[in-house]
Amino acid sequence: MEHELDLRQYNVRTDLALEAKELAEVGGAGALQGVRAETVQEEGITITRMSIDNEIGARAIGKMIGQYVTLEVPGLRNQDTVLQDRVATVFAREFEAFLQRLGVGKNANTLIVGLGNWNVTPDALGPLVVENTMVTRHYFELMPDRVAPGYRPVSAVAPGVLGITGIESSEIVQGIVQRTKPDLIIAIDALASKAIERVNTTIQIADTGIHPGSGIGNKRKGLTQQILGVPVIAIGVPTVVYASTIVNSCIELLSEHFKRQTDNAGPIMGMLQSLPENDRLQLVREVLQPVGHDLLVTPKDVDQFIEDIANIIASGLNAALHDAVDSSNVAAYTH
């Protein structure tokens, strides 16, 4: 229709495949074709292993065909070091199983790419992980006879962002790939979530590569096997959430509060409480965006959160990539 309202710009944006699946299930009916998922609980850690098998599933949730593993750990907000160590161990186990499913060998030459801006705390996850990663490629190049068994060649780089370097991260990585010829690329980046409770408490692993800035609406050249010619595994943590998401969550919490306090919650909340979550979020975004108030928000204690979760990921990677690293005490191997 000529005057039909186009709401595509107000669609919920999320980098998490798990959230995309949840949104699709709310908007659809029953199980999604082409999408398989299993969820297990393990001492405060929720592990979801999801597979998008075909184009039907990819279109249904708006994510690429591939394998996704998500760790949800709400307790990370409590800065419990014992829990952090346990998460690092579980992450190492899940990542190693992920490598095995993809057929990545024990001696695969691996390049770790820490995407993001080290000057902006919510976007500094990638560079912080690189700082704590055990790099070994130079030993294999310079003194291969002195490398102990149980290690593989690992290199790492934090290429910065376009605004600092003037060069797309993908182009920088392409140059490195051409010269160093890795067998595998691991790209780490900060993500955007639609749920406040998942910010800084969730880790996603995917074999689909990564598109910097996709969760905040930026269209940028990605790091994928199609572009780089090398398998790319993406690791991400949501560190920001839209203001519209927070407003939407507040409306839902208000509705639940009034339902507990009075039998007349309906007249107070009106049609807002009967709208589906996705429709309500679109409405909030439609109101906020024209006046420039749909901000990206991060918790005030993001500095400590980023340090902690970067250490968890780096510890887990060190254990998963090097058999010589004790996976039961991975935290001892970060510096």
TrEMBL record:
Reaction catalysis annotation: Endopeptidase action with P4 Glu or Asp, P1 preferably Glu > Asp, P1' hydrophobic and P2' Ala
Post-translational modification, as annotated: Autoproteolytically processed. The inactive tetrameric zymogen termed p46 autoprocesses to a smaller form termed p41, which is active only during spore germination.
Signal peptide: none
EC main group: hydrolase
Superkingdom classification of source: Bacteria
Natural source organism: Paenibacillus darwinianus
Protein's UniProt name: Germination protease
Functional note: Initiates the rapid degradation of small, acid-soluble proteins during spore germination.
One Pfam family matching this protein: Peptidase_A25
An example Gene Ontology molecular-function term: metalloendopeptidase activity
Family in the record: Belongs to the peptidase A25 family.
